[in-house]
Amino acid sequence: MKKPHYSTAARQDLVGILQYIACDKPGAPVAWVEKVEAKCLLLASQPDIGELRSQLGTDVRCNFVGRYVIFHRKHGDTVEILRVIPGDRNITKL
Length: 94
Prior knowledge:
Organism: Novipirellula rosea
Family: Belongs to the RelE toxin family.
Helix content: 25-40%
Protein name: Plasmid stabilization system protein
Strand content: 25-35%
Mean pLDDT: 87
Number of helices: 2
InterPro entries: RelE/ParE_toxin, RelE/ParE_toxin_dom_sf, TA_system_RelE-like_toxin
Order of helices and strands: EHHEEEE
Number of domains: 1
Keywords: Toxin-antitoxin system
CATH architecture: 2-Layer Sandwich
């Protein structure tokens, strides 16, 4: 199975989200990481799923995990995970 490539910004997003979740529910971050990783693996094997968001860049698509949005795009023979942000955040300001 293909593995996704996480951008530096996406990795930073994930760390911030994990820290935020851990403040309220110390045991929850592990389960959340597993959900995100499962979705990213799906995206790596099926990169054309998700809504096309061309206003954010060439071939940028989005998918959801709970209230978070994963932005990704095909990059050669892999999928690049660009950002993972809360759905209520203004994406045009990123």
